[in-house]
Design goal:
Number of strands: 16
CATH superfamily of the largest domain: Alanine racemase
Order of helices and strands: HEHEHEHEHEHEHEHEHEHEEHEEEEE
CATH topology of the largest domain: TIM Barrel
Strand content: 15-25%
Bound molecules: pyridoxal-5'-phosphate
Distance between the termini: 14 Å
Length: 381
């Protein structure tokens, strides 16, 4: 981070999130450029970060939106996404959420159960509308990521299982206000082993065969999101969109007229955001030194919830003796720790810390626990 910015931050109350909009622009352009090579369609997974300037920029770049609640659908549309490019997923869509998405005429409901299809049909019928849906199919592919963010195994609650598909087709036949337009898959998040995506393509090919043998060719194949970022090398890292899309282009077997859609969240916004926090106290224990920050699990819960790694830099003290610290928050839980035994230059009260790669699933997961104050986000440019 440049000196000018650090100087500017010194006069601000902490903690707050900082977003490098220039870097976000670069990331979006890279993703868009690689996807366009193959005519792929991109939706941004709004749940990763729904700050208005971020949504506005992503919408301006021509992305569609991927939403997981009715409120997300509304916020996406309020911030410039076209309803005709909004998809709505989630295992538990309430009637009012479905109704508001029907009123907005969104592109597609990604349906996760037979009962959900029946409910959407009823609600669409009451409005005299036809809802476009995709079937979210659980492909039973291991994403090789943290078990809390694995979603494509048959033991997970997500999607429709292969053995249910016959029943799904008979439900669809009875559902006059539903139009099946696609098949949808999302196997998990923070996926860094790209062979998981290759495995997904071969499952999709098999599932397509099943539909094809029943004379069904859908227009949309939606491969979901999940491309991971490198939390250990946050500076200037743009995910390998080229390789990611190349895998789908090479291995997906498409029928004529089929479109491929993706729903990327973390890989677009993860590296543009940081949590900026101040050192409140240094505490020297018998075996450990603690740097106690004014941010904790209430501002960034990923280390505590997923055992996630985030690079941490002391922006104020950069020279001097190297000392190991546990970097902890003020919350009354021993899990409220960002890093253990991190070696830093000697740290003092008032130093500014940057916790990196926090643009995705950071600020959006902040809570009111302890009624701590998270100050307004700062944006570069
Ligand atoms: C969360 C989610 C995504 C985005 O996942 P990332 O790992 O952030 O890319 C895409 N699709 C669905 C259905 C999701 O729930």
């Amino acid at each position: 981070m440049n000196k000018e910015l650090i100087h500017q931050f010194e006069s601000l109350p902490t903690p707050f999130y900082f977003y490098d909009m220039d870097f976000l622009t670069k990331t979006l352009d890279a993703a868009k450029g690689e996807a366009e090579k193959y005519g792929f369609h991109l939706h941004y997974a709004v749940k990763a970060n729904f700050n208005a300037p971020i949504l506005n920029l992503i919408a301006d770049k021509g992305f569609g939106a991927d939403c997981v609640s009715g409120r997300e659908v509304e916020v996406a549309v309020e911030n410039g996404f076209k309803p005709s490019e909004v998809v709505f997923a989630g295992v538990g869509k309430s009637d009012s959420e479905i109704n508001s998405a029907l009123d907005l005429n969104i592109f597609c409901f990604n349906c996760e159960s037979i009962m959900e299809i029946e409910v959407i049909n009823e609600l669409a019928k009451a409005k005299g509308k036809t809802a476009q849906i995709a079937l979210r199919i659980n492909p039973n592919v291991n994403a090789n990521t943290h078990k809390y963010i694995t979603t494509g195994l048959s033991e997970n609650k997500f999607g429709i299982n292969m053995w249910e598909l016959d029943d799904v087709l008979s439900t669809l036949q009875k559902s006059e206000n539903i139009e099946l337009i696609g098949l949808h898959f999302h196997i998990g998040s923070q996926i860094t082993d790209l062979t998981s995506f290759k495995n997904l393509t071969s499952k999709i090919n098999k599932i397509q065969e099943w539909f094809y043998s029943r004379q069904i060719i859908v227009k949309v194949i939606n491969a979901g999101g999940g491309l991971g970022i490198d939390y250990h090398n946050p500076n200037g890292q743009i995910p390998d969109f080229a390789e990611y899309f190349r895998i789908f282009n090479e291995f997906l077997e498409l029928r004529s007229g089929q479109e491929v859609h993706f729903e990327l969240g973390r890989s677009l916004v993860g590296q543009c955001g940081s949590l900026i926090s101040r050192v409140l106290y240094i505490k020297n224990g018998l075996k450990k030194n603690f740097a106690i920050l004014d941010a904790g699990m209430t501002e960034l819960i990923r280390p505590m919830l997923y055992n996630a790694h985030h690079e941490i830099e002391n922006l104020s003290s950069t020279s001097g003796e190297r000392i190991k610290y546990d970097i902890v928050g003020p919350i009354c839980e021993s899990t409220d720790c960002f890093a253990k035994d991190l070696e830093l230059s000697e740290t003092k009260r008032g130093d500014l810390f940057q916790i990196k790669s926090a643009g995705g699933y950071g600020e959006v997961m902040a809570s009111d626990y302890n009624l701590k104050t998270l100050h307004p986000a700062q944006y570069s440019k």
